[in-house]
Amino acid sequence: MRRHCLAVFLGLVALDCGGIARTNGNDLCLAGERIECTCRGPGKGVRTCSADGIAFGECVCGGGLMDAGGGIDDDGGPPTNTCSSKSAWTGGLQGSADMTPGRPCIACHLTVPQSPQYTVAGTVYGDVADADDCNGVDGLGVAIAVMDERGAEIVPRLLVNRVGNFVGSRAMPAAYRVKIVASGVERVMQSLVMNGDCNVCHTATGAQGASGRVVKPKP
């Protein structure tokens, strides 16, 4: 299945995390743009422009290949042995609460009016550098708390599902704080949040000051 919405929301992602950058080849690189690359084994891989628009990332082999029409075929997913969960989403754009972990949910859903619309969405991972479509942590006992600037929780906690995805649709203030709670252990994000599409900046390489993925705190 080709990721038709990818090209549509590239502009939204670029506005949030760096816009357009030039690569070593003087080609324009849009945040989230993907190009084919050569793998050591059979088949081709994909390099993805970083969310801050600096350059294309490393070649990821074993999934996400370009099809004959020039689109991206994401049914394969990344190699599962590269995911901290040892599993990955392979359903393309098939609607599911488990779909496309690690990708910017809100930006994509905005392009499909009949899809659920969210104000907060993201993925909790076991490793800071997990690739797009790698499944995140099993969310049993894990939740996301949204707080005002004083630290008071302002909406019910967001539950994290079996692949690490979490979503919320309640109205949010212009700026707020968040923390991850897991089995009594908390990790508070130090900076204020002004964009609830968490995976825009919490990418495998990090953007806009993020060090990488949202990661479950350890005991």
Q: What can be said about this structure in brief?
A:
The chain is 8% helix and 24% strand.
Account of the protein in words:
The chain has a domain at 4-82. The protein has two helices and 14 strands; from the N terminus they run αβββββββαβββββββ. The chain has helices spanning 4-16, 105-109, and strands at 20-22, 28-30, 34-38, 44-48, 60-61, 65-66, 72-73, 120-125, 142-147, 158-159, 165-168, 177-182, 185-188, 214-215. It is globular, with a radius of gyration of 17 Å.
Any descriptors?
four-stranded antiparallel beta sheet, globular, mainly beta, 14 strands, three-stranded antiparallel beta sheet, single chain, 219 residues
- Helix tally equals 2
Supply the helix-strand structural class: mainly beta
Number of strands: 14
Order of helices and strands: HEEEEEEEHEEEEEEE
Q: pLDDT below 50 for ≥5 consecutive residues: which ranges? A: 6-27, 62-74
| Gyration radius, in Å | 17 Å
Question: Hey, roughly how much beta strand do the residues contain?
Answer: 15-25%
* Main sheet: strands, sense, barrel: 4 strands, antiparallel
- Output mean pLDDT: 79
**Span of the ends, CA to CA:** 39 Å
Going across the biggest sheet, name each strand in turn: 10-9-12-13
Shape: globular
